[in-house]
Structures are given as C-alpha cells and as structure tokens.
Amino acid sequence: MAETPAPKKLFIKSYGCQMNVYDSERMADVLAPLGYVTTDQPDGADIVILNTCHIREKATEKVYSELGKIREMKEAMAQDGRGAMTIAVAGCVAQAEGAEIMRRQSAVDLVIGPQAYHQLPELIARTHRARGERLAADFAPEEKFDALAQTPRRPGGVTAFLTVQEGCDKFCTFCVVPYTRGGEWSRPVEDILTEARALAAQGVREVTLLGQNVNAYAGEHGLANLAGRLAEIPGLERIRYTTSHPRDMAEDLIAAHGEMSALMPYLHLPVQSGSDRILRAMNRGHSAKAYIDLVGRIRGARPDMALSSDFIVGFPGETEADFEATLELVRQVEYASAFTFKYSRRPGTPAATLAGQVDEAVKDERLARLNALLDNQQRAFNASKIGQTLPVLVERPGRHPGQVIGRSPYLQSVHFEAAESLIGQIVPVRIEAAAKMSLAGVLSNAAAVPEPA
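RESULT FIELD:
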C-alpha cells in the first residue's frame, strides 16, 4: 500500500485590516486541496505568506524585518535537508512595492497583489519547477472572486468575514488604497448570497461584510438592500459591516438600522480629524459638523448605536487648535471604541510631500491625550451595560474550565460560565462587571432575549 504523503505546512501572517484577514483565509482555502495545512509557526513551513498592509510606514518596515528572519529559516531548512521553503509576499505592499521587495530581499519567491490570490497554485507550481514567474499583481477583482468561488470556504467558527466590495475612489491624501487596491468594485448580489448561504450551512451565525468603503457597495440597490437579502438566509442571525466612509452613508442604510433586527447596532465610521482645515487637507470630503450631523441621524434611527472610529494625529500642518477640535468632536460623539494612529508618510501619497510635518514628540503627546479620552469613553460605555441583560452570540470556550466567550450586539467580548454546547447560540446574559476590553456576566434563566431594537 502506498504511503499517504505528509501534509505540507502553510504559514500565513496577516498585517493590517480585516480585509487582509479575509484574504488570508481564502488563500488557505485555495491551497488546501493541494495538501497544505496551516501552521502557527513559520519555521519548517513549506510555504510562508506575509499578507501585508501598506497603510503605515512602520508596518511596511516590519514586513522587511520579518522577511530577514524568515530568510534565515529558509536557509537553515535547506542546509539541514528539510526541504525548500517558498516565501511569498501578498497584499498591498506587494502591489505597491513588488520590484522593491525583490530587490531588497532575494529570498522572496513570489510577490502577489490583492487580485491574484486565486492564481497561487499555478504560481507556486511554476516556482517549484523553475523559480519562474514571480510577479502577479494586475488582475481584475471579478476574476479573483470568480476563481475563489470554485473553492469552498472553511469557516473556523460561528462568525465569518464576507467581502462585498473592494477598492476606493476617495483619494484621501494620506492613503495608498486607491493605488494598491484600485477603484471601487462591488461583487454581484447573487455571488455574495451564495457564499453567505454556504457559510450559514456550516454553522456561521454572524457575518461581517467587508470593503475598503463597504457602504459604497453598488450592487442592486446598495448595501441596505444587500443586508435585507442576507437577513432572509436561515441561520444567519447577525449582520455587521466595515469599513464605512461618512460620504457613503445613504439614508436607506441609516433607516435600515432602525428597521432590521439582524443589523447590529455597532458602526465603524472613521472621521480621522475634528478640524475642518485638516479634513480638507486630507481630502475627506466632509466637515466636522457634517459628520456630527450624520451621527445624529444614525442615532435618531437607532438610539443605542455604538460607534467606533479611526483618528490620525500629527497630520502635516496640524496645530494645537486643530488637535483640540478633534478632542471636542470626540467629546460630542462619545465613542464605544476607536483606533488611533500617528501620521506616517506613505511614499506616493500627496500628504508625504506636504509642508508642516509634525515633530514625533508632539505626535506622541497628542496621541496619549487622545487615547486617554477615548479609553475613558470606552470604559464608560462598557460600564453602562452593567445590570442589563444582553443577547450574546456564544463563539468559543473561555480561558477557564466551564467558561465561554461571546459577543454582544455592540461587539463587546462577554465571558460567562456556561456549557460549550451553547456555542453558536444567542443566549441572554446579565452583565455584572465591565473592563475596558470586555464584559463579564451570568447566563440568565429567562427566555432568550431578542436583539435590542
């Protein structure tokens, strides 16, 4: 009897956004039929893929640093006779700096742009045969998704990401996405529904719709209509979406939050700055007042809406008055959570050449002040749930025996004691304690509570 060949090891490391997490899952799905199984360590892997993000300079340099370490592992494998490691760089850094990657790190075998993941098997085969074609960056997104549709997904739990839109037409002056992901493109509704039905059939109860500008989704009447169609799928009980642009928050989508119980009351709505002068320099296309008014309309439709946002401090030309305007916006909106960043130059973006680059020490000080305010708001929001009974989607076992962890409608992590047989169910949990990053509660004896409306 012939021996079954040992599975080949695949290590994927994702940087940056949730879109990259989704893309990494799909790369693993594409390679699974070829006998590749994922491993959590690069050392000894047959293929190492770094799925990169190009948003910040520090993230890009981390990729080059990581490549240096992996090159040493590759050389050690070859010297020890343990086989040949294939190193691939994927994602936005690959799209933007493909030739530079090959120049700086000769150990890299493949550079794969965001629209070429479906060609991984072919590219790997070429590499193994002759170390041939290395760059594969310029493919239409519809070709990528058509090919990926032929490979079934294997979700790792009761929640899953689902890409519905790619690319960006906004051209914010600090951002490389329009150059690395291309223009806005929306997947056909039926393709999304087919993938969502398959996920639901495998036990997925919550999907997060992904896009660089997800609320710019342009397929068949927009994102509100798509959410409504998804809510009709049996077993699919919760719908989220990220990342949104304030300019694309349509009135029917706002209304849907008040009408559709499956659409969760948590919205990531990046503003970046509270200063109109800086917003204009960023080419955001909205003012601070327009953003605050939008938040008012959203909360008018869904009063319990939890908001998160992105902020950049130290954008070129930012004064103390500009920064104070950001703090004032934060005080007015009151966020449940947020992501904050120091501005860093991205080659090829208009902001990289702007005058008035802010000193690093000033950026550090402002970032600390902003984070302190946002941390207080996040703690206050979580504390406001103490005493409430929330519907929690149980996702996985907890760290301690007899404990499980789930998510509230507001995306808070909730841990409580219960049987693991509840994984995949939405159960009522009375919240008894709150920290910055999570809630703690007890399983309620009451009948399951509906999602808050």
